[in-house]
Design brief:
By secondary structure, the protein is mainly β. It has one domain. The protein is built from 1 helix and 11 strands.
Length: 172
């Protein structure tokens, strides 16, 4: 009986570092707004990121309020930081902050629930909203047209958003 705990400790020391893995940083396929016409081409587009919920308590907030984790928006090539987003509207109902961006391509680095940091290339179109669901709790009705569009998903199958349209594929 005494050798069993020693043997378990021995396996933990010998196999522990080799058996554990460090979390990978996921890079997803590009996401854009749902298909449709732009409302106003002169206006900037918007980005709405439902990032993972912040597990840290906020002792200055209502106990029933949740907060999405902050994220960064980078240039299309990922080299220049465009915007750091405090992803909290400050409202009791919670929800992420909507960010206006000029039309174009960007990379979003945010936390996905259960996956850690992920990089998501996004397309922003004038007058439209590009939405990312990284919180892992959004439910899509089976009749939603997103299922016909081959949506971008996390490895566990959760839908993150609309794939980039072929018409947006070659745009800068």
């Amino acid at each position: 009986m005494r050798s069993l705990p020693f043997f378990g400790l021995f396996l933990l020391i010998v196999c522990g570092p080799g058996c554990s893995s460090t979390p990978r940083h996921l890079v997803l396929a590009p996401i854009g707004p749902p298909p449709g016409l732009s409302l106003e081409t002169s206006n900037p587009g918007s980005l709405l990121v439902f990032s993972a919920l912040d597990p840290s308590p906020d002792f200055n907030a209502s106990p029933y309020r949740y907060r999405h984790t902050d994220y960064q928006v980078y240039s299309a090539d990922g080299t220049n930081l465009v915007h750091t987003v405090c992803n909290d509207t400050g409202k009791a109902a919670g929800g992420p902050s909507r960010v206006e961006l000029p039309a174009g391509r960007y990379q979003v680095v945010a936390r996905a629930n259960g996956y850690g940091p992920v990089t998501v290339p996004v397309v922003i179109r004038a007058g439209q909203v590009t939405t990312l669901h990284l919180e892992g709790s959004h439910w899509w009705p089976r009749t939603s047209p997103i299922f016909e569009a081959n949506p971008v998903r996390l490895p566990g199958g959760q839908i993150v958003g609309w794939p980039v349209l072929a018409s947006d594929a070659g745009k800068p």
